[in-house]
């Protein structure tokens, strides 16, 4: 992606290279694996897991201490993420204005290993996520190497851009009231029915990521879209379950299949029309 020299977001807090003074309680690694399976790209579901996270991570200090300097590669990766967030700010300000609304920028926190948020404490194993309580995207950028080596994604800078755009898509859902409505609808539903609404929410965030890419085509390079589609393929519920347990359980899906994630990203990219992203009408 042609990103160097473009405007960087001013809404990024870089906590990488820092470590909290506390210690993650025993069991933190296990819950990280559980969250990875349940909550990959878990835009809204992190909040639901907050009590369990806090129980297993009691005693973790929120005081951050710089432990080391960032490497040149880490600095460049941070610059890239900051620039991508800037791209999303420009795009969504335009889309909201075109629809008679005002966009409010999210924040983004780059961290290493573990982080304290308004949705509770989380570890790197959670994967990138959006916290609606403080309206911030949280990312441990080391996740993307794991996405490539463990889950078979092609990698590349646009895979990172896709994930950032997906998480910002959850912020858009918060601003539009979509995620709040979904949480209310999920109350009292069976787990299977609630999961279906979660899938629609996640696929809509994929659609919004594609819409963002549509608006930024002049910055794309050959192979960028393929990198995004490879990442979407790698994090489908079916792909993750096959890799981790050898079979799939469709009723437990919370994010959609690989094919669905690819389809909705493509739909956003090809149409560039926010009105075409009603995943709820088509899937429920």
From TrEMBL:
Record-linked InterPro entries: Uncharacterised_pept_Zn_put
Biological-process GO terms, alphabetical: proteolysis
Main location: membrane
Biased composition, class Basic and acidic residues, residue ranges: 7-17
Pfam family for this entry, one: Zn_peptidase
Listed transmembrane segments: 21-42
Record membrane topology: Single-pass membrane protein
Any GO molecular function: metallopeptidase activity
Region spans: Disordered: 1-20
Domain of life: Bacteria
Keyword line: Hydrolase, Membrane, Metalloprotease, Protease, Transmembrane, Transmembrane helix
Subcellular locations according to the entry: Membrane
A cellular component annotation (GO) from this entry: membrane
PANTHER family membership: INNER MEMBRANE PROTEIN, PUTATIVE MEMBRANE PROTEIN YPFJ
Protein name (database record): Metalloprotease
Organism: Flavobacterium supellecticarium
